[in-house]
Amino acid sequence: MRVGIFGGTFNPIHTGHLVLAETAREAFKLDRVLFIPTNQPPHKPVRDLAPGAVRLKLVQLAIRDHAAFAASDIELQRFGASYTIETVRTLRRQLPDATLFLLVGEDMLGVRWLAWDTLKRLCTIVAAHRSGRRAVRGQPGLKWLDMPRLDIASSEIRARVKSGRSIRYLVPAAVERYIRQHHLYRKDARL
Question: Is the pLDDT assigned to residue 3 strictly greater than 90?
Answer without folding.
Answer: yes
